[in-house]
Amino acid sequence: MLKRIILLFLSAVLFFACGPSGKDPALARLRCEFRENPLGIDITQPRLSWEIQSSDRGVVQQAYQVLVASTREALDNDEGDLWNSDKVMSDQSVNVRYAGKPLGSGTDCYWKVKVWTADGLESGWSQPAYWSTGLLQPGDWQAKWIGLDSAFAWERPDDPYTRLAARYFRKEFQPEKKIKKATAYISGLGLYELYINGNKIGDQVLAPGPTEYNKRVFYNTFDVTDQLQEGSNAIGVILGNGRYFHMRAPGKIRLPQVTHYGYPKMICQVNITYEDGSTASIVSDNSWKVTANGPIVANNEYDGEAYDATKEMPGWSQPGFNAATWLPVQLVEKPGELLVAQLNRNIKVMDTVKAVSVKEIKPGLFIYDMGQNFVGWVHLKVKGAKGDTVKLRFAERLQDDSTLYMDNLRSARVTDVYTLKGDGTEEWEPRFTYHGFRYVEVTGYPGKPDLSAIEGRVVYDDMETTGEFTTSNKVINQVYKNAYWGIRGNYRGMPTDCPQRDERMGWLGDRAVGARGESFIFNNHLLYAKWLQDIEDAQSPEGSVPDVAPTYWKIYSDNMTWPAAYLIIANLLYEQYGDDQPIRKHYASMKKWMQYMKDKYMKDYILTKDTYGDWCMPPESPELIHSKDPARKTAGDFLGTAFYYHLLTLMERFATLTGNTADVAAFRELGANVKTAFNNKFLDKQGGYYANNTPTANIFSLAYGLTPADREDTVFHHIVNKTLNDYKGHISTGLVGAEWLMRVLTGYGRGDIAYQLATNTTYPSWGYMAEHGATTIWELWNGNTADPAMNSGNHVMLLGDLVVWYYENLAGIKPDPAAPGFKKIIMKPLQVKGLDKVEASYRSVYGPIRSAWEKQDGTFNWHITIPANTSATVYVPAASEQQVKEGNAAISGENGVKFLKMDGGYAVYEVGSGEYSFSAT
Ligand code: RAM
Fold first, then answer.
1. What class is the 350-458 domain?
2. What does pTM read for this prediction?
3. Alpha helical stretches, state H, 102-161
4. Which residues line ligand 1 (CB under 6 A)?
5. Candidate from 503, 561, 777, 799 with most ligand 1 atoms within 8 A of CB, to mutate
6. Beta strands 338-341 and 199-200: pairing type?
7. Which CATH superfamily is domain 2-132 in?
8. Which of 101, 104, 491, 738 is deepest in the core (most CB within 10 A)?
9. Domain 141-344 is classified in which CATH homologous superfamily?
């Protein structure tokens, strides 16, 4: 009996997990501008997407119909009063542009979709989805920017280690009538928390997203209908410094100057619609009150937060609070020209980590090991007397004496302080700081803290994990895990270089190719689309693109290799997500930058400028940060020219895509000249290698299509030779060379060497880091021995194209550039000796793609899933067509599997959507 119940239960679980079988396709995951039910967007013709779910094979959408209605009732009655697309004959299920009535501010849009498939099936209507528009016209904002442009006696705004208390704002109001709907629009710089009647609104932290503040500031939108009440209401806002009020004032501390925008400020507007249809707005203005004398006595992203619970102000964001000691606010200057709706997701507490050990190293000094280097903060539990003060400090490593190793944090003080109010068990976590750490030092704790006294909060952008990946190789699995933790830890509304020291900047070069690898693991689409806007906003009037964006450090070095990320990532978003908008949006600015670099630095078609070289290539001795050996370095004009050429090929593609036809020929012609000059200058015709024959030089010549066809083999041979002999089968590149290393090795037939690099555990390698205790990726190959001045334990740049290679080559899941966004997929798993099994999945915009293969007793078994409305070219490793079966039967051309050709040890098939089980003996 029990068995039967379990079986029944299991089949029910299976049914729901696999989705309905049967014939009707189901529609799910409706998205508006790639978000689920977004509020307050300011795109007036947003793009709509849906996922078709069906376990049938070869499901292709033939037509769709979208309804958009201004009320839920209308939608339920199948009335598209805003837009009825009618039946559109099209297979487009991603990025269908809204083409209905013009949308005004604050409009509710309820929508649903149905589709017809090529085999004549009709789906039902999808579940309803929603979006709303924000404040679209500047005049919609009646609210004013408010703040206090001065410091208080207890603050130290000019100290190099700036210390500023959080600012608390409040306003009481009485709605006149019964409320039907209320929407809050808010921006608070650097960071805000919004409260209504004592409740925090939303689950975001460290909001809003960081921007080039003097150009563009984000606001967030919330539905607060349920938070308002009859009678008196109160709004409260807390402001922290974030990146608006600088973390370092000019002074003794050696840093590039941290950009300073001003004192914290905010704007807030609550738009109310009453049941009778009339409206009202509660807005920030000079009737609000402010204090900086609350419990957050200091906050600084580098140095930490200090919270004095004895200064709490119970009820401060509720009606009836006595704010007699609070000050009137000042009306202050608006921060930037544009106040726009934030589309990329805010940061959230995404995970928790429990401590694995706690040790009392010295009397009263406790060291917690969280077991994982991660980014965020800790939640503290403590019981003690009023005024007791607990101090928390954070580090990635320990010293030999088990105390924190803090040398690599440079000037960051990373110290959170909690002063107890003495009121039973107190719980606290900071709001306006974050740390990158594995170890926590606790001092001042009343009594002995146990393991559960602190708990880690993992904090990063609220984005879906889209990838899973595991193999039969332990080193690869560990490195993947380290990459996963490093990547999630370095999303802070912008991709940062590191999360722990006095830097944490959006360095462009670190992500040029990394972003592609990351995009398999996380849905980072909107974050990177936003970052491209940061980059454009930071472009100088002359056209220079900085190395860091937003420019919290202003570094305009006129480099090629770092700003190249601007174009490379726009291209990635197109290929991975099928989103051409970034290319369209930034085309003019990209072109301007290319022209600027050419005018200023191109001589005889050689781009002479480079700033960082092949940054952080493995140095010759263990304590060095950078190599001093000229034979290991790749020349700057070589890198500059190779990158310029590659970017010209991208510009040519972008020009075609955007219809800038006149530009196409110009980019192509310039490209041809650059290529000739490049080969004349850098190709050693006798030796058959480039520049000084570093693997990096030869890699780019091949990767970027610069090498004449008849020379490719020789050039590639030099990469192999150097890697195997001079570098003894180890990596020789820094972050630049690593961008194409694994893919060039594999593409030219030496996937075995790529595999060797990926599984090495001796220096230098990713495995070496793991072997030496890394649970993230280091900034330096020799991160355990190098000078601490530049030696972060959590930097993702050295991953290069490793994660891309994991997914595209080991799992064999790759977007086909012929139909971007995985509308067409190339499935081609690399076979190398020693690797017997890979299981991976990637959730594309069309739905999950899976690849699970295993080699056993000479048989290759491969299960794949191809989402509905896509198709794939599938490469099954086999010596001949006859050796391949699908679903245990010979392949006859039926069942949706069509043989195309034999190609380099693979039998190649075309398949439609569905699940397939291939085997080859
Ligand atoms: C370091 C950063 C970053 C790198 C630059 C050039 O300070 O950490 O990773 O891009 O230098």
1. mainly beta
2. 0.96
3. none
4. 497-498, 503, 507, 509-510, 612, 615, 795, 797
5. 503
6. unpaired
7. Immunoglobulins (2.60.40.10)
8. 738
9. Galactose-binding domain-like (2.60.120.260)
3-class secondary structure per residue, 39-62? CCECCCCCEEEEEEECCCCCCCEE
Residues belonging to the active site: 503, 779
* For the chain, domain boundaries: 2-132, 141-344, 350-458, 467-811, 819-920
Question: One fold for both 141-344 and 350-458?
Answer: yes
- Give the ligand 1 atom nearest the CA of 611: 6
Look up residue 788 and give its two tokens: 């601490």
Tell me the average pLDDT of the chain: 96
Tell me, in angstroms, the distance from the centre of ligand 1 to residue 433's CA. Answer: 21
Close Cβ partners of 697 (under 8 Å, ≥ 6 residues apart)? 634, 635, 638, 682, 689, 690, 691
| pLDDT, tens digit (0-9, with 9 covering 90-100), for 117-162 | 999 999 999 999 999 999 999 899 999 999 999 999 999 999 999 9
Is the CATH number of domain 467-811 1.50.10.10?
yes
Q: Residue 415: in which H helix or E strand, if any? A: strand 415-419
Assign 3-state DSSP to the chain and report helix, strand, coil percentages, each to 5: 25, 30, 45
In 3D, which of 87, 38, 34 has the Cα closest to residue 62? 87
530-572 pLDDT, tens digit per residue, is 999 999 999 999 999 999 999 999 999 999 999 999 999 999 9
Q: Report the CATH architecture of 819-920.
A: Sandwich (2.60)
8 Å CB contact between 479 and 471: no
Question: Whose Cα sits closest to atom 8 in ligand 1?
Answer: 497
Rg of the chain over all Cα atoms, to the nearest angstrom: 29
- Give distance in angstroms: CA of 522 to centre of ligand 1: 23
